[in-house]
Amino acid sequence: MHNAVPLVEVWRGPFCESLHRGHAVVWEEGSGIVASWGDPDQVILPRSSCKMVQALPLIESGAAEAFGLYDAQLALACASHNGAAVHSGMVTEWLTGLGLDPEAALRCGPQMPADRAARTGLIKTDTSPCQIHNNCSGKHSGFLTLAKHLGAGPEYIDPDHPVQQAVKAAFEEVTEETSPGYGIDGCSAPNFACTVTGLARAMARFAAATGAGDARDRAMHRLTRAMAAFPHLVAGEGRSCTALMRAMEGRASVKTGAEAVFVAIVPERRMGVALKIADGGTRGAEAAVTQILTGMGVLAADHPVARSYTHGPIRNRRDMDTGYYRPVPELADWRL
Amino acid sequence: MHNAVPLVEVWRGPFCESLHRGHAVVWEEGSGIVASWGDPDQVILPRSSCKMVQALPLIESGAAEAFGLYDAQLALACASHNGAAVHSGMVTEWLTGLGLDPEAALRCGPQMPADRAARTGLIKTDTSPCQIHNNCSGKHSGFLTLAKHLGAGPEYIDPDHPVQQAVKAAFEEVTEETSPGYGIDGCSAPNFACTVTGLARAMARFAAATGAGDARDRAMHRLTRAMAAFPHLVAGEGRSCTALMRAMEGRASVKTGAEAVFVAIVPERRMGVALKIADGGTRGAEAAVTQILTGMGVLAADHPVARSYTHGPIRNRRDMDTGYYRPVPELADWRL
Question: How many CB atoms lie within 10 A of CB B228?
Fold first, then answer.
């Protein structure tokens, strides 16, 4: 992380108050790196940005078909959701449909929902948040579906469990790298490491999938389309993944990850984007990925959603404009 | 901000996942810089870290004495508090005692309290947060007290208002710099810029105050002691300022500011500390200031509070240890 380069400045009045450094790669399927900032070989933990990779075995194994999963569920499997009623409700229905007790089967841990209505509802009724509210509960529902299909044991987050071994194999195949190891994620699942380039390369493979190829091609195509079709299931109201995918109207699928990772799948360009803000600041990752998407021509730079992430304004508690974001020229001036 | 140096690493499993860069200065009154990391001349907005400077005119003008302010109120004037009942209650009592309607007089804007009990209480009763809950409402109570003492108008946050002009004069005197300008803070007050060195120099002047000197010396001494005497009023339960001051048992007064500024006043060393994490990440500022305080010998490195800020652990939603912080050797190995 020590050789990250400046990407996004944060200004307040006449001063550059803060600065986000990072690494970013745009990869074109069948070609290679078309643009990069910082060190393309930086090893990162993709965190939740690789949930569509973690969902590949769910489809490729035949589990999704065997249990009749619909596309909205696949979008939820790729989600870091807000724990709104729609998210936790779908998880409950999904798991009970598998004959599982959600709270007994899940291993993601409880999390207070980010969704305001859901949070308020819990607080007003003195109810503790549950595992279904965890932002990763859709991914874990996918893991549980695969575990059931494989006839594997309940500890599906164990790195040696068949589910995680299948995830690791898919991850190494699409990144085209041997993972140097893993960290334990916020949801207790292993999260395999790769380079920023490897993650961008994986996203480019998703982008290039046509749905007319082999099992992997079809799985990648279906997941990409499911995310783009259900932006509110991938995150939720007020969240950047949802807002950006809505603004791009299906032209790209994007996903954030903890500690400021962000990826984009751009089918019309057969390109993938991966970036990591070195300091873990989400606002920096949102600004950077949005700037790159505008540079790729799949999001208008003056779209209000794009503008809000790339330039702010930063408002205070009396709604005064106090500052703004400013991508550095090396990022702001880039065009595909 | 572009020339900040690595200060604190964030590890997950076997990987350095994130990195916080910054600038820091330790200044000794009557001597100068005794240690620095990054660029001592970096211009920053101190944000809430300079509230004890903003409170100087409240005392030096005679306003605090005229209105009989007690030390707990002065600690609250230096606070970025949690909006707990004790904080909002003191503000209400203070302002009504001045004959003011708090919500009509304050200009800080409403803010949902960080304090869990206060927040839950508001949510359960469908009550909107008020300005008294704003983390800066104590500072603003000080501003209103000074405005009343001066017979000045109600728009006390206007940069040209006598209150802010007095703040600016005090700020420039204790930093020994001509401020290059200001930004508007989250609470709508102007926040004057200075160098990291200027802020550390100001803190060293507070540290060297004996209470037996001129009006400024007595004001600085009283504010430093008030902060150390009432750690829970300066922030609140679960907050680093409160936890660190309790752990140091009066040996230092510390204060955080938005966008990862942190200062420390260390009377026994006649030294001041100021630091800014370039990316605005609070966890980085907490780790760095704690590490410096241990290096200065006023906080035991193995104290559980110190250890939690400098080394973690970082726990996930099932309370598993997933990672830790690690100050870089240039910071970790420093001793006064």
Answer: 21
The helix (run of H) or strand (run of E) holding residue B36 is strand B32-37
Whether chain B has a CB inside 8 Å of the CB on A154: the answer is no
Q: Quick one: angle between helices B85-97 and B116-124, nearest 10?
A: 80
Amino acid symbol at A293: L
Dihedral sign from CA coordinates of A239, A241, A242, A244: positive
Encode B107-121: b = buried (16+ Cβ within 10 Å), e = exposed.
bbbbbebbbeebbee
| Span A67-79, pLDDT tens digits | 999 999 999 999 9
For B104, counting Cβ atoms within 10 Å of its Cβ (0-12 exposed, 13-18 middle, 19+ buried), the class is exposed
Q: Which residues of B touch A17 (CB under 8 A)?
A: 1, 44-45, 183, 259, 280
Contact A316 B109 (CB under 8 A): yes
Among B267, B322, B314, B266, residue whose Cα is nearest residue B287? B314
Using CA atoms, how far residue B135 sits from A196, A319, A326, B108, B186, in Å, is: 39, 16, 28, 9, 10
Answer whether 0.80 is exceeded by the pTM: yes
pLDDT band at B116 (very low <50, low <70, confident <90, very high): very high
Mean local confidence (pLDDT), B72-86: 98
Q: Give chain B's count of helices (H) and strands (E).
A: 16, 12
Summarised one tens digit per residue, pLDDT across range B159-211 is 999 999 999 999 999 999 999 999 999 999 999 999 999 999 999 999 999 99
Q: Write a three-state SS string for B191-209.
A: EECEEHHHHHHHHHHHHHC
Q: How far apart are CA B149 and CA A66, in angstroms?
A: 77
Q: Sign of dihedral through CA atoms B69, B71, B73, B75?
A: positive
Distance, CA of A253 to CA of B295 (rounded, Å): 48
Percent of chain B clearing pLDDT 90 (strictly above): 100
Tokens of B74: 């002065």
| Chain A partners within 8 Å of B286 (Cβ) | none
Instruction: Given the cut 0.90, state whether the ipTM is greater than it.
Output: yes
Cα separations in angstroms, A336 against A199, A293, A311, B93? 19, 10, 20, 60
Mean pLDDT of A50-79: 98
Q: Minimal Cα–Cα distance from A126 to chain B, Å?
A: 9
Which among A1, A120, A182 is the nearest to B16, CB-wise? A1
Question: How distant, in Å, are the alpha carbons of A154, A260, B291 from that of A313?
Answer: 47, 20, 34
- Per-residue model confidence as pLDDT tens digits over A19-48: 999 999 999 999 999 999 999 999 999 999
Distance CA B312, CA B326 (A): 9
